[in-house]
Amino acid sequence: MKNIHVDVDFKEVLQRIEKEMEGYSRTAWANKVGVRINVVSNIHGANARQNPSLNYILAVSVATRKPMDYFLWGPVSYISSELPDPMVKEDEKIYSDIDPSKDTEVSVAQDPEMGKRVRYWREDMGFSAAKVAKRSGLPVDLIKSIEAGNHTSTDVIVKLADTLRCSIDFLLGCGSASVVQDLNKKT
């Protein structure tokens, strides 16, 4: 396996995450993101020396409904005509229209689109919900709950992506427009 060096400025990553944390106590933020309070304290505490892990950044991305790239690299200005596909253009429109002075908290209790994508990929692989549960070590009721549109934690999403052999981006709806368009046609 080839090592690839990526230069990430963790001070800027932390600033973007802490901007999202404004108005939350550490405990409330940990609950929103779906991590333990000690993780938040180790990263955001007064004497913190730990950089955020990619898993933590992913959890923040899922909880805030902002792309992981936003936290890693910051807002990027694109010229719409240069964007690769319609989904990216739509995301750029959504994130460029956000007024940072207004509260943009989004309820994450329901995610019916992710449920559709999990079911689509599971059925495409010929797996039953019970087989996915057995392979992933997750309860079958949790798989069915996700497919029904209920939100879940980042760890579960990672396990599902690994079990279903698909990308986390696909499950979160950040994947290629052509795959999502095919999914919408099938359902």
TrEMBL record:
Record-level Gene Ontology MF annotations: DNA binding
Classification via Gene3D superfamilies: lambda repressor-like DNA-binding domains
Domain HTH cro/C1-type: 118-171
Name of the protein this chain belongs to: HTH cro/C1-type domain-containing protein
InterPro entries assigned: Cro/C1-type_HTH, Lambda_DNA-bd_dom_sf
